[in-house]
Amino acid sequence: MNWKRKDLLGLEELSRQEIEFILDTAGSFKEVSTRAVKKVPALRGKTIVNLFFEPSTRTKTSFELAAKRLSADILSFEVSTSSVSKGETIVDTARNIEAMKVDCFIVRHSVSGAPLIISKAVKAAVINAGDGCHEHPTQALLDLFTVKEVFGKISGLNIAIIGDIYHSRVARSNIWGFTKLGAKVTVCGPPTLIPHGVEQTGVSICYSVAEAVKNADIVYLLRIQKERQQENFFPSQAEYRNFFGFDYKKFQFQKNKFFLMHPGPMNRGLEISTESAEKENSLILQQVTNGIAVRMAVLYLTVRQVH
Asked: Which CATH number describes the domain made up of 137-287?
């Protein structure tokens, strides 16, 4: 197929064919990171801007490396030292930077829909690097890529997503991605952290980690997002850890072999035990590695649409 989108704002709007095309493109780029000279000239002369209004380690660094390995120039925008701190709007910020002839904005913002607003105001490509509680499409794409790398397929697999579903943009993107590619998705967490109507996206709901893990091929653990919780969604961290925290020792009796995933950063000892994070069935670092190839693919496909 021919890729025709200059923006990547979420997986909800993508077709199965588009998602698979990104994954296939990422597969061709993964080999670049194994070379002695980790660089190809695919985006030479292009300028990418990391427009991050929230803290980030993995996503921001991964996009920077992806851009550099495509031979693009990359600028990292520091909100604390910018005119945003003086009251400038995000649209004015983007337009002023675009006037310097940049080709792509990678946007992370605490407000859902911020990348969409910017995409309507600029001609440059816009990639959503996480907006509020809405979506985090490149995280889901690297998760899909990792699962396909391990199993050779996604269709027919059982995916259990456990934790703070309500506040998680990662969960939303993964639900769209995995269901569109034919996986069966179960979400699990305290009732207060399960969004109303989530079953309409095609997922099943359960409130027992043991039940969620029972037939799972992938157990995907989510971070408790303390920064987004303005209310007490559970009595205490100790109670959450007791009922929904993942400790591999609890599930050694399981007959099915499953793999653990986590988008990071991890709250060790809360949603996941240190031993579980370090087990041989953990794909957490493999996810980080694959993030570069996936983001190379997304940059390559979108930026080439900018004229």
From this structure: 3.40.50.1370
Residue ranges of the chain whose pLDDT lies below 50: 228
Inter-axis angle of helices 58-69 and 284-303, to 10 degrees? 50
- Contact in structure between 182 and 166 (CB atoms under 8 Å): no
- What is the dotted CATH code of the domain comprising 7-135+288-303? 3.40.50.1370
List helix spans (H) across 191-230.
209-213
The rounded distance, in Å, linking the Cα atoms of 39 and 21 is: 22
Domain ranges of the chain: 7-135+288-303, 137-287
- In degrees, rounded to 5, the angle at the alpha carbon of residue 139 between the alpha carbons of residues 136 and 140 is 85
Full-model pTM: 0.94
Q: In what order do the strands lie in the sheet with 158-162?
A: 204-206, 184-188, 158-162, 218-221, 259-261
Q: Is the peptide bond before 190 cis (omega within 30 degrees of 0)?
A: no
Q: Which residues neighbour 280 within 8 Å (Cβ) at sequence distance 6 or greater?
A: none
pLDDT computed for residue 145 by the predictor: 98
pLDDT at 227: 55
